[in-house]
C-alpha cells in the first residue's frame, strides 16, 4: 500500500532537516559577512611606507645624499697648514660674493662660475642646500636664522618669541656684524680655517667641469652667500689665516702673507625694488609678511656694514649693480673677470653667457611701477624719512625721479 503525501506538507524527515539546512545557510552567510567586514592591517602598513617612501624620494631628488648623510658627508680631512700651503703655493683666489637677499647674487654667481678658470659649488642636489649657498652648509659662523622663517612668522609664543634674524631683518639684530676684531678668538684657532675649507673644498674639487680636480685646475674658487655682506673682514681673516707648519697661528701681523688669498664682490640693487622683491619672496615662498619700513631699515643697515668693511678690508673689493649686470652683462662680466685676473676676452665672455641661466632684463620695472601706482602714497614718507641715510651710502640710485 502506497501512502500518498498530501500536497503542501513535508515529510517529518524533510521537515526536521530543513531547520538544520537553514542554519547552515545562515551560518555560511554570516561567515561571508564577517570576511567582507574584516580589514587587513597590512594594507595600512603598505600605505604608510608608500607615503613615507614617496616623501623621502621627493626630498632626495631635491637635496640629494646630504638629506640622509648630513652636510658634512663629503668633508675632507686636511690639516690647517695643508690648506695654507696649497692655497699659497698655487696662488689660488677665493672669491666671496655677498649682498642683500633678492639683489641678484645667485644669477651673478651662476655667471661667474661658468668661466672656464673658475669653480663654484654644484646645484641643490649636489650641495644639499637651497641656492647652493655656503652659509647654509657650514657650522663655523651663524646662518642668522635664514631658512628658519617658515615656522616663525607672526608667532610670538615660546621661549624665543618671533624670530627677528631672518631674511629682510637679520642686519638689524645685535652682534650680526662679524669682524676680524670682534672675532679674534676664532681667528686664532687654526681649526676654524680647516673646518670651513674641509666642508667647502670637496664641493669645489669634485666638479665635473674640472674632471673632479677643481682645487688643482681652477684658479678661482667662488662662494656665494648674501650674508657674506656682514662677515667680510672675518672671512678675510679666516681664509688668510697665517698658519705655521706646526699647526699654530702666527699672531705677528708683520709675518702675514703679502698676497691676499681673498677677493670680495658686493652685489646690490635699487632699494625700492629690493624691498619689494624681498617682500614678495617672504610672502610667496614663506607665507609671511615683513613691514616695508623694516625691510628698508635692514637694507640700509646691511649696506652700512658693507661700506664699513670695504674700508677695513686689505683684499680687493668690487661692487656690481644688478641693473648694470642685467642690461650690460658682457661689459660687467668683462670687468669682473679682469678683476679676478682670469681670461676676459670676448670669446670667453660669450662662452659664459651661453652656459649660464638666462639673464632677465628690466627686473626692476614691475616694482618701480608698483611704487609709482601705490608706493608713493603708502611709503613715500619713509623714503623721505631715510633719505639722508640712503644717500650717504653713495650707491648711485636716484630716489627722486622714479615716476
**Could you spell the SSE succession in H and E letters?**
HHHHEHEHHHHEHEHHEHHHHH
Estimated share of beta-strand residues? 5-15%
Mean pLDDT: 88
Q: Whole-number radius of gyration?
A: 33 Å
Major β-sheet, in short? 5 strands, parallel
Contiguous runs where pLDDT drops below 50 for at least 5 residues: 1-29, 148-162
Q: State the helicity in percent bands.
A: 40-55%
Oligomer: single chain
C-alpha geometry? globular
Give the beta-strand count: 5
Widest β-sheet, arrangement of strands = 2-3-1-4-5
Structural class of the helix and strand makeup? alpha/beta
Taking the alpha carbons of the first and last residues, their distance comes to 123 Å
Number of helices: 17
What attributes does this structure have?
403 residues; alpha/beta; 17 helices; 5 strands; 49% helix; globular
Summarize the structure.
With 403 residues, the protein is an alpha/beta fold. 49% of the residues lie in helices and 6% in strands. The protein is built from 17 helices and five strands.
Write a structural description:
The chain contains 17 helices and five strands. The chain has 403 residues and is of the alpha/beta class. It has a five-stranded parallel sheet, sandwiched between helices. Helix 11 packs across helix 12 (292-312). It is globular and about 60 Å long. It starts with 11 loop residues before the first helix and ends in an 11-residue tail after the last helix.
Amino acid at each position: 500500500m502506497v501512502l500518498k503525501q498530501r500536497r503542501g506538507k513535508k515529510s517529518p524527515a524533510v521537515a526536521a532537516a530543513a531547520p538544520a539546512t537553514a542554519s547552515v545557510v545562515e551560518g555560511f552567510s554570516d561567515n561571508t559577512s564577517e570576511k567582507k567586514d574584516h580589514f587587513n592591517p597590512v594594507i595600512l602598513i603598505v600605505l604608510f611606507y608608500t607615503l613615507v617612501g614617496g616623501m623621502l624620494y621627493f626630498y632626495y631628488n631635491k637635496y640629494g645624499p646630504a638629506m640622509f648623510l648630513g652636510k658634512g658627508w663629503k668633508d675632507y680631512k686636511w690639516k690647517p697648514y695643508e690648506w695654507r700651503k696649497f692655497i699659497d703655493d698655487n696662488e689660488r683666489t677665493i672669491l666671496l660674493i655677498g649682498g642683500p637677499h633678492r639683489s641678484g647674487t645667485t644669477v651673478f654667481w651662476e655667471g661667474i662660475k661658468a668661466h672656464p678658470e673658475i669653480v663654484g659649488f654644484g646645484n641643490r642636489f649636489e650641495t644639499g642646500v637651497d641656492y647652493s649657498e655656503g652659509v647654509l652648509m657650514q657650522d663655523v659662523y651663524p646662518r642668522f636664522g635664514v631658512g628658519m622663517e617658515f615656522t616663525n612668522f607672526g608667532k610670538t609664543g615660546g621661549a624665543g618669541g618671533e624670530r627677528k634674524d631672518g631674511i629682510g631683518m637679520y642686519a638689524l639684530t645685535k652682534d650680526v656684524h662679524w669682524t676680524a676684531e670682534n672675532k679674534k678668538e676664532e681667528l686664532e684657532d687654526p681649526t676654524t680655517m680647516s673646518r670651513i675649507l674641509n666642508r667647502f673644498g670637496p664641493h669645489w674639487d669634485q666638479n665635473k667641469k674640472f674632471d673632479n680636480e677643481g682645487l688643482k685646475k681652477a684658479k678661482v674658487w667662488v662662494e656665494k652667500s648674501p650674508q657674506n655682506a656682514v662677515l667680510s673682514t672675518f672671512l678675510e681673516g679666516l681664509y688668510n689665516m697665517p698658519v705655521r707648519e706646526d699647526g699654530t697661528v702666527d699672531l705677528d701681523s708683520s709675518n702675514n702673507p703679502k698676497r691676499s688669498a681673498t677677493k670680495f664682490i658686493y652685489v646690490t640693487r635699487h632699494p625700492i625694488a629690493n624691498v619689494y622683491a624681498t617682500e614678495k619672496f617672504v610672502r610667496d615662498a614663506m607665507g609671511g609678511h615683513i613691514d616695508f619700513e623694516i625691510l628698508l631699515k635692514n637694507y640700509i643697515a646691511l649696506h652700512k656694514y658693507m661700506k664699513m668693511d670695504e674700508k677695513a678690508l686689505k683684499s680687493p673689493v668690487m661692487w656690481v649693480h644688478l641693473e648694470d649686470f642685467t642690461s650690460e652683462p658682457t661689459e660687467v662680466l668683462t670687468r669682473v673677470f679682469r678683476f679676478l685676473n682670469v681670461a676676459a676676452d670676448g670669446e670667453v665672455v660669450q662662452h659664459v653667457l651661453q652656459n649660464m641661466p638666462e639673464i632677465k632684463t628690466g627686473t626692476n620695472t614691475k616694482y618701480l611701477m608698483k611704487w609709482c601706482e601705490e608706493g608713493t602714497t603708502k611709503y613715500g614718507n619713509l623714503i623721505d624719512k631715510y633719505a639722508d641715510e640712503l644717500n650717504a651710502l653713495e650707491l648711485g640710485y636716484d630716489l627722486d625721479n622714479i615716476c
